[in-house]
Amino acid sequence: MENAWLIALIPAIGFALIISFGxxxxxxxxxxxxxxxxxxxxxxxxxxxxxxxxTDSASSHGGEEAVGGLFTGVxxxxxxxxxxxxxxxxxxxxxxxxxxxxxxxxxxxxxHIDGLSVLLLWLVAFISLLVQIFSLDYVRGDRRYTxxxxxxxxFSSGMLVMVMSSNxxxxxxxxEIMGLCSFMLIGHWWEDAYNSHSALKAFFxxxxxxxxxxxxxxxxxxxxxxxxxxxxxxxxxxxxxIGAWALSGEGSSWTLLMASICLFIACIGKSGQFPLHTWLxxxxxxxxxxxxxxxxxxxxxxxxxLVARIYPVFWEGFNIANGGLSxxxxxxxxxxxxxxxxxxxxxxxxKVLAYSTVSQLGYMMLGLGTGAWLPxxxxxxxxxxxxxxxxxxxxxxxxxxxxxxxxxxxxxxGLRKKMPxxxxxxxxxxxxxxxxxxxxxxxxxxxxxxxxGANGYSVLFxxxxxxAALTAMYMTRATYLTFxxxxxxxxxxxxxxxxxxDEYAIDFREEIVHAEDIDRELVMAGPAxxxxxxxxxxxxxxLEHDAEGDPAHGGHDGHGDGHDDHGDHGPHESGKxxxxxxxxxxxxxxxxxxxxxTPLAGDSLGANLGEGVELIKTYVEPRYxxxxxxxxxxxxxxxxxxxxxxxxxxxxDSSDEPGDSKAKCGRGTPEPGTVCYFPNVKHAVxxxxxxxxxxxxxxxxxxxxxxxxxSYYGKKNPKLVGLTERSKIARGGYxxxxxxxxxxxxxxxxxxxxxxxxxxxxxxxxxxxxxxxAVDGVGASGKATGNWIYKYIDQGLVDGAVNxxxxxxxxxxxxxxxxxxxxxxxxxALLFGAATVGAIVLxxxxxx
Amino acid sequence: xxxxxxxxxxxxxxLDGSVNIAINIGFGIIATVMIFAAFSVVTTKNVxxxxxxxxxxxxxxxxxxxxxxxxxxxxxxxxxxxxxxMVLFLFGIMLTRAQIGAEDGLNNNGWQxxxxxxxxxxxxxxxxxxDTFEDDVIGERAPFPTVGLSxxxxxxxxVPFLAVSFVLLAAAxxxxxxxRKD
Amino acid sequence: MLAVxxxxxxxVLFCIGVFGVIARRNAVLVLMSIELILAxxxxxxxxxxxxxxxxDGLVFALFVMAIAAAxxxxxxxxxxxxxxxxxxxxxxxLSEMKG
Lengths: 848, 182, 99
Known about the structure:
The complex is a heterotrimer of chains A (848), B (182) and C (99). By secondary structure, chain A is mostly helical.
């Protein structure tokens, strides 16, 4: 576990290798990608095993011993549970190098291994590996095959970096790498304007949320830094320190609330909650492996991971302990419903799955927001399997069944006979998704709903149940349209005119679906609005095409004759490389639920196997015990001694009930000298009644949906067909849903337009008139001053003085000129006159 | 009426208290003539008459010299001034074709300006003289001896005497140079 | 007799001579007026000699006479030359000044 950083490093190296050498390799880089993911999976598995051993040894020893030795996992946990002793807090293993230092603040890069990280590390590595195997066949012959694998590998690396991060900075690093890869992968066929626009939309929408991430991190840093430095010898970015600070009661509730809201805004963006969910359906423009890896199992779960990781902050910030309605729960609840409703009106199978993902993410957030930490995390685990399987099935269908189209209404139908493996895998995953016992979804989703109810949120409890019913209904519709009924379009072997390809190179603006377009859609035939699937057309055969550099349009050249893998030009089952990952995932969708089957632990179903069957709970959920500080100041790389907190506290308050000391974390201030790392979340005890209730709801949903599908799509019941034509209410509702609640219109037309037009225009006006006007004004005034000075001062004053002096001299000369007349008489007169005057003066002077 | 005036004028006393009437009368007459003649010099319209009036003035000056006891100077005056200079003047008049008879335009344009100048000067000089020499009496005496004059010339004022001779030489040569025709 | 007599007489002659210099247009007449001035000055010298019983006055008077003669000679020579060149000895016509 000390070397867990390898898990993220290996894919990163793989990425570098693929980028540098991929094109020259025999498999064009795919082998490097597969190898790196496999190696990463091995290391992750090793880390997982070590963590389990560590937990076991700590639980069974219950004493101050260094971790060591091997213990059998389950038995050890059972023994600890029966002992009813306080389960001590298992210190996570932290390995960290200083990445960057700045005035005493150190940013570290490293790994932080505890139950949650181990679970997700293994999950990401596993799913990535399966998706890469799937892509070997799916994107074969693509023009950017190498870059595709490179981006997939980089994405895996980024997510692994994020999952194992021990401080917020590294978490943000991983977060951003994932955002970048998402952008690259969604826009993989960026020659189509729609694809590049979708990529941009995804990136920008998530970016809007990322503002919250940065602000939240800053708030947490400034809040937690003092506490972290003084008591825990770390800094305000350290996730464990933040958690301890949040639970210590030293943070003001206002700070925690602000930080929670900001961080949750980031989660809204990344995990596609309302109102920033609009990017997820459009992200389906990317290739199916991308959708299955990023946008169903792993990347969108990053938001859930963030909440789960820094759960103490949210716990304290939103005051979940006291059962208040938290922001997270509300958003989660809203998301569940609106996404589920939207999934009803989609024609594109991938979009149905996308909205389903959004809805399931809503479940996870609902769980986290109401204090059901463990069920939410478990749901992440199981959801990854069955959702990824569903997407891979959709990919398989389009690859081999509907001729690269994803339009259910146009190109699918009756495929269950032609593609049996895909059909059974799909069914298994659907049953898991809707929560039918004993599939995986039942154990995780119903636990969420159960805990929601048990923690006192009755409205949200019914919302969760309603969501489950809706899930059943829309999945039934999708299943029916895809696999049942008469084959349509490509499923029937009819190729579409490839001239339609030009339609997709449109100027992408949010197209409002108008009423006149609806009527054509409701019945299957007829030109439907552009299907995303055909835009994802991949040139078929590597034997005939150069995989790189083919423009999208040129790839159609070999259309008629190049599809050698379509043996009979009709739908058929996909190759092994596609079906094997699907089968593996379907199997896991069936069985993964048994990793934490809470109802089996207790009495409700009569199994009574004890808490030991709750593996996830045992190994993943952090313990909520207070930890002594000098022990808690963890040293990098060393294993920290574990304490038995029961002895510590029992000595102090012996009069209290034994359960009280456990309640300290998250429900009160911890003792001085200790810190808490995780709050004491409640776990609902499942009852048989609730289990039956949820199963009944799901069953009702199924029956309603099957009935509707059969009558509407199958028999074309005249009462139902054309309903929106006849009924204004139905039409209005349909339009509202088709236009995705006009949210996209709002964002695009109002927000973006407002910024790009009036704001930009105002800024431009300001720039031209005010700023340039000021500059021009200064220039003009300078010029005018110069002119004035020239005219009045230089010409007038200075030259005037010079001229005047000259004139004075000349006038004086002129004036004196008559004196020099040349007339002797005059000279004589002057002479004698002057003499006379002089004499008078003399006389006067001498006389007086 | 004139007689009493003259008598009164003649009654100017001498140094020893006696009154010498004859000199005073003589002086008065000659002075009157001189002034009248001088006045005519500057106002007459006839150039030749002006020359002749000048002769009269110079003669009167010579007479005054004798009354003053400077006999040698008086004779020199007659010989040099009247004898040479006036002849020279008359030659000049002739050679410059002065009109015989009265002619207009002998006064220039600004001749009025001369009157105040002369009058003021006269007043000034008169005032100065009267103020200084009031009632100074010049005694009777013998005329100055010519020997004494020559004594002064050849003894004390020898250098100026020779200088004057040079001046005369230069003047003569100069006049010749200036006036010759070539 | 009174000393003032001679001096006053001389002064009168002097002033008349000044008037003549200013007023007369003919160059010869101007020279004549200058002679009047000189004669007046001579009379002054002699009067002073008489008043002061000093013969130096007479000496100077003779000097004046000599210089006057020289001056008249040269002056008239000049007048003759001017007459020859300009055909006129009216002093205000002789000016070549432009202003």
